[in-house]
Design brief:
178 residues; alpha+beta; two-stranded antiparallel ribbon; 6 helices; 33% helix; 16% strand
Length: 178
């Protein structure tokens, strides 16, 4: 396997692109790092590459398979694809957003291949993301992402744009007042 920078040059050349200073700077910001948000990449490159160039380069890198997205709810993080480092999976904390690589586990990889074959599926790649709460967040009072509290009694439901009473509610006041 080629060194990561040589692999980048070869991938770009194969697609009629060249390695510019900006592209190399962005690649360096991603190399040997945990997955990052686009904002973190922009911040890491801010003295050398403007924001628009970072977005354009990331879009190019995604099209060419140089980077991959890790979906985390509605958001995502970016990391170099398996062509540039060993394949791995991630833990992602739903509270603080920290993403950590899982230790390599060949038995897990073998099991995923077995599952794919049992379904007559030819696996070409996969991503495994485990979402939960990290140790640090579990030890704080903010250990669970905000969720609206469940009502302690049935609340009115909105149907067809009109307020309708719930099953245990009545439109007549219970306090005895008219």
């Amino acid at each position: 396997m080629l060194e990561p920078l040589e692999q980048l040059k070869a991938t770009l050349k194969e697609h009629g692109q060249s390695l510019t200073v900006a592209r190399q700077t962005i690649f360096n910001a991603l190399q040997d790092k945990e997955p990052q948000t686009i904002q973190e990449i922009v911040a890491a490159c801010q003295d050398q590459v403007d924001r628009a160039s970072v977005y354009r380069t990331i879009a190019l890198y995604e099209r060419l398979g140089i980077v991959q997205r890790l979906q985390i709810g509605w958001k995502y993080k970016l990391e170099l694809s398996g062509s540039f480092h060993h394949h791995h999976h991630h833990f992602t904390c739903l509270h603080c957003g920290q993403t950590t690589a899982l230790p390599e586990d060949t038995s897990l990889e073998n099991r995923l291949q077995t599952i794919a074959k049992s379904q007559s599926f030819e696996m070409q790649g996969h991503q495994l993301e485990i979402h939960g709460t990290c140790v640090l967040c579990r030890s704080t009072e903010l250990s669970v992402p905000y969720r609206a509290p469940l009502p302690s009694h049935p609340s009115p439901s909105l149907r067809w744009g009109k307020l309708q009473p719930g099953p245990s509610q009545s439109c007549i006041p219970q306090s005895g007042m008219p």
